[in-house]
Amino acid sequence: MGREIKFGDRKVGDGHPAYIIAEVGINHNGDMDIAKKIIDAAAHAGADAVKFQKRTPDVATPPEQQKQMRETPWGYITYLDYRYKVEFNEGQYREIDKYCKQKNIAWMVSVWDEPSVDFMEKFDTPAYKVPSASLTDHKLLKHVRKTGRPVIISSGMSTMEQIKRGVEAVGADNLVIMHCTSTYPCEPEELNLKMIETLRTEFPNNPIGYSGHEVGLVPSAVAVALGASSIERHITLDRAMWGSDQAASVEPSGFERLVKYIRVTEASLGDGIKKVYESEMGSMKKLRRVVNE
Q1: Which helix (H) or strand (E) holds 267?
Q2: Closest CA to 222 of 257, 248, 261, 253
């Protein structure tokens, strides 16, 4: 079958429209109303899915960070307490599940630890994402694979060797590999979009995607031209909102343009076979004077 997998009823890979993921992450700041407004914006823009992040704070937060104090909208609290403030519980995820069905948009999560995978098995999402930070956690990768669902891995802050070992650990079947640079926001000079071609060569049977944290929209459309079959960008209601990912996110009107740019890019690529189009005939008759057959 080559470079193609399915997320739900949607085929992802060469020859199919790019699968566009609006990464909500923790941009909702623990507020369900904000989460729903972001889902509205993503659905309106034409994204295929929204994505959240699921952590078990005690497990996913490094011990040395847990007691560090942090200024937050909930006051001056420990980093661990803050991580709990931005986590949704089962009831809230059921609400998200129902809301996304109403809006006709898929939803999924990045899982940061094994208990989060077990928690998410209560829901029927089309894929699991393993974030760049966890690419070297082979135990987690194997635990995610046991669910039997398609898996997306991100490759930020990783060497080529670590990517290969991560793919080996999770298994290459039913896997999308995302090129990514984990800097928020990321300067153009460090986006390294040619890595999409490198990954396409290295993993000829896997759809290759792009998870972008740049300011602006053009690189994501260029990524599609270079062969990315899935695009993930952070979405927010307002980049000035409190939170570490907001500045590298795209606001609703920008996300609409992003989807449009990607779809125009796909339509523009063509098949690489030169032809004279019917629409050119008028110009040809009017402008061409000499024809040497």
Answers
A1: helix 252-269
A2: 261
pLDDT at 31 over 60: yes
The neighbour count for residue 194, using CB atoms within 10 Å, is: 10
Non-local (6+) Cβ contacts of 9 within 8 A are none
The residues pairing with 152 across neighbouring beta strands, listed in sequence order, are: 129, 176
Q: In whole angstroms, give the CA distance from residue 248 to residue 244.
A: 9
AA identity, residue 289: R
Task: Look up residue 194 and give its two tokens.
Answer: 């040619």
Residue 1: the pLDDT is 42
259: helix, strand or coil = helix
Nearest residue to 27 via CA among 205, 239, 293: 239
pLDDT at 23: 98
What the chain holds in terms of domains, given with CATH numbers, is: 4-287 (3.20.20.70)
pTM of the predicted model over 0.70? yes
Contacts of 113 (CB under 8 A, 6+ apart): 55, 56, 59, 60, 140
Q: How many helices (H) and strands (E) does the chain have?
A: 12, 12
219 close to 192: Cβ distance less than 8 angstroms: no
- Beta strand ranges found along 73-171 (DSSP E): 75-78, 106-111, 128-130, 151-154
Instruction: Summarize pLDDT for 134-165 with one digit per residue, the tens.
Output: 999 999 999 999 999 999 999 999 999 999 99
Q: Does 10 have pLDDT greater than 90? A: yes
